[in-house]
Amino acid sequence: MNWQFPEKSKIQSLKVEEKEKEKKSFIANFAFFFFPSLIVASGLVLGIWQPLEQLAYRGLFRLRGTMPWDERVVLIDIDDASLTELGRFPWPRKQYTQLLNQLSAAEPSVVVLDVLMPESSPEDAQMAAVMEKVGQVVLAQGWDLRKTPLPPTPELSKSAIAIGHIANHKDSDGLTRQVVPQLEGVPLLSIAASQVYSLVKEPVKLPPMNQPLLVNWPGEVLQAPHYSFVSVLQGKVPASAFKGKIVMVGVTAAALDPLNTPFEGHPPASGIHLHATVLNNLLQQNFLKTPDPKWLLVFLLLGGPMLGFTLNRYRARHQLIAVVSLCSGWVIVSVVLLRVGYLMPVVSPVGLFCLTAASLSIQERLRMKAQLQHIEQQQQQRQLYDSLTGLPNRTLFMERLEVALERTYQFENYLFAVLFVDLDRFKVINDSLGHTVGDKLLVAIAHRLCTLMRPRDTVARLGGDEFTILLEEIQQLSDATRVAESIHEALASPFYLDGHEVFAAASIGIALSRRVGEPENRTVGQDGKTIPFLTPSTLPSPNTQKGQEPGLNPEWDLLRDADIALSQAKIMGKGRYAVFHTTLHARAIALLQLETDLRLAIGALSKEGFEFSVLSSPLQDENSKLKTPNLKLLPNSEFRVYYQPIISLSTGKITAFEALVRWQHPKRGLVSPLEFIPVAEETGLMAQLDWWVLREACCQMRAWQERFVQNSEPSTSNYEQLTIGVNLSAMQFAQSDMVQQIDRIVRETGLETRSLKLEITETCLLEDADAVTAMLEQLRALGVKVGIDDFGTGYSSLGRLHCLPIDTLKIDRSFISGMGDEENRWEIVQTIMTLAHNLGMDVVAEGIETAEQMLQLKRLQCEYGQGYFFSKPVDAPAAEELLAAQPQW
Hints:
By secondary structure, the chain is α/β, with parallel strands linked by helices. It contains 29 helices and 29 strands. An eight-stranded mixed β-barrel has the order 21-22-24-25-26-27-28-29, surrounded by five helices. α1 (8-46) crosses α10, α7 crosses α9 (271-284) and α16 (435-452) crosses α17 (477-492). The radius of gyration is 38 Å and the shape is flat.
């Protein structure tokens, strides 16, 4: 066998070519890996990363935690309490003179006044004399908007031992990171204070005066030793607190001298805290240091290629682990170095690590082309597409919706629909599994929605958990409802995200572009309910020409209509869909008007100072004298208190009333509580209204007691005792000063506390058990009785019921109304009464409407009854007539 070997020159040529390829590959890889370094370094030079570095700056300080404040520095705050006591700021010189007199006895080392005093005052001489008595007083100098210096007055300047400037340079994010040691020959206020301290107490090493100083914030400013200005004036602070200390006086009241720090994103920090921090840095010699920008730039330029060649040897999984470790390690090292006074950049190194790792996954041959495509896609993505899901955003959706509306002008029978999709209880997923899983769920839902649509349809994400769908060229309403049903079916299947099985549901609102000849009422939806269908009034009819639309922005009107239908779907129970009709829009407008009227009506109560009145009755004789103090008529009040009697079933006589609020609207007449009370609760107005009702009811009951209970004549005193029951809302119950307000109202109205019963719902008992029990014990200590209203309809824990100081259980009317028809309801009522009696509680049965129900409850030994069988809720004069008639059932 003859073997044929290649020529030696050919072999050498192949080796040279291979080396040349390796060389070109090395150069290409170096250029490729150098590209991330170039991006990060350029961003550093151009300041692109500065906003992110500013955020990282805040995060590093918070990760580092607080450091101890120097005990040699004490702050005297001109705070809100001082302004309340001493008047508006700026103050006259006498306030500072009194403060310096107080401090002179304490013998502080230095007193620093961070208050501008450029204008002369007759009190300057007296203040200057006190300053000379104290000895070491440093005053502040500033500049106005025209850069004109604002030094202290000559007389005060002569008495001051030093003057320091208070100029404050804030970065673009509003945070002060550095200070200027000297400005126009005037040292910084804190540096001037440290110079004086060096003369009188101990030497302090000063920093270079020709370059800015980086502030090392030790922690939250409220951790520094501080006292209120007015407390010092009043002698409430011992002199030992200031002896030998550097005392800094400045404004800390809200909105007067605001300052952001890494630990307070918003005030309470102020300018005096900045100067105290700088002084703290001077005393502890712990100003921040930063690396040389040149060496940082070299590190960024060489770090990308070195990291790229190193990571290129490993697989993608190991590369990811390495980059994550580098990023987290850099952050940890930065935090550790910050504790010893070195501030390291975070965004640019971490960005370099991430960009280098990302560059490893891009093929060399398509690198440049992919970069250009990426830039174009990013520009389009930011403008028209959602960054998380990749779906069209609001802008692109509205453009396509506008195009669809244009087609309705061109084609008479063109029909489309807008579906507004909102995820139900999405916040629960975010709160429980985290925003990362929540974002992944949004992406997965977006993918499922897209798979259900035709190519001509548009699925967009408006923001948060809201999606919109544009269904074009449909034939009838049922096409849109079928899509809504398909969405519900698609979301019924679980999502598997990061090891979690997640379920999602959505409510959907549907709005059509025009009327399609459907009947005005049409049965649609998975629940088989009749959903009215009407065309949105703001959209053009088929014959409307362009430029003659009734609405200025019909595309926004259509989106609004779909949103209104969505709200209706949520009201129907979530996980449903609803079709827009004009009554929904009218209902939304009516609800807004109701809320506005309600705010005005309750606001009128506030303007009147919650004054109250006892409604007089023709039955009162002229000699009747009310002992209730400070009664005043409210002629303009739209609210009325109605009273429903509570009857003792054993005697058949009235023993109490329940106070119920009614709204006498000036245009609509009497508004049902079922209509305005939910609005008041949702808008936070309920507590304000309830306090008015409590005050009005207590006043009225006090008047009735004086007439019918405390009268000395036996013929007119036929009631041993009358009590008033007032509902206490959950919003009132959550107020920390609830007991104090109740006590004040009872004392002001003159009503005995034993005559007041507060009724709470079972919802209030679901809060913190210890806090609820403590509050109820405080009410019992006042002598006020407490009852649970509508018992049996909520979620109260029977295991806790025996531990609570409850006097009465009110059985809900839903159990009483059917007692004569259903045996199981009778057994439930009997069980509730047995439970209440075993716990030492009285029972009130609500909703008694027949004599048979009253007799059944008497046989069950129910103490009290309430309902239309006795009387419906009536106004105060009618209730007084009822008391005067002395009925007995």
